[in-house]
Amino acid sequence: AYFQALTLRCDGPDGLVAAVRMKSDKPEPQELVFRFRRFEPPALASSCTEAFTTLEMNECLAGILARAQSSQDQYLSSALERYTDRPVLAANIAASDKAFAAYRDAECDAVYEDWKEGSIRNIMSLTCRIEMTDARTHSIWRNWLTYQDNATPILPEPAPTR
């Protein structure tokens, strides 16, 4: 679509280019080009298909985060219990979990900050927290609740929280 000083054109199936001609201190008008891509919501948000509003999606994702945190707590507790006879190792595992929580909070707070101008900010931050919490739970399982041979792990391999 061509307008007086604005041109809009498709850029593939999911893109849009907007070109704006503007007067400047240069002899020729200058053109500003803006490229837009269709936003793909995080895959995790599809777990909340019954949610129709942003508020409902926030509540749904907050519930998923609570389940993810509960699972992480269960796996961490089992790991610490397994190593009660090795207090230094247990203390290191607990310290690493505390460091992880600080890192997750800083990372996901940055995600929130990046999206703070939009209504999707909470969805993006919650998705970040869920994905990182699930990854931490899997790391605890892999490092502290499995054996080097083919023996059955202390707890089953954690699946992504839904």
In short:
The chain is built from 3 helices and 3 strands; from the N terminus they run βββααα.
What structural keywords apply?
162 residues, single chain, 3 helices, alpha+beta
List the helices and strands and how they pair.
Blueprint (H helix, E strand, L loop, with lengths): L5 E5 L4 E8 L7 E8 L16 H29 L4 H28 L6 H24 L18
Describe this structure in words.
This protein is an alpha+beta fold and 162 residues long. Helices cover 50% and strands 13% of the residues. The protein is built from three helices and three strands; from the N terminus they run βββααα. A three-stranded antiparallel β-sheet has the order 1-2-3, with no helix packed on it. A hairpin with a 4-residue loop joins β1 and β2 (15-22). The two termini are 43 Å apart.
Structural class: alpha+beta
Which spans of ≥5 residues are poorly predicted at pLDDT below 50?
A: none
- Overall mean confidence score, pLDDT: 90
Number of strand elements: 3
Helices and strands, in N-to-C order?
EEEHHH
C-alpha Rg (nearest Å): 24 Å
- Most strands sheet: 3 strands, antiparallel
Report how far apart the termini are.
43 Å
The percent of residues in helical segments reads: 40-55%
Beta-strand percent range:
5-15%
- For the largest sheet, list the strands in their spatial order: 1-2-3
Q: Count of DSSP helices? A: 3
Q: Sum up the overall morphology in one term.
A: elongated
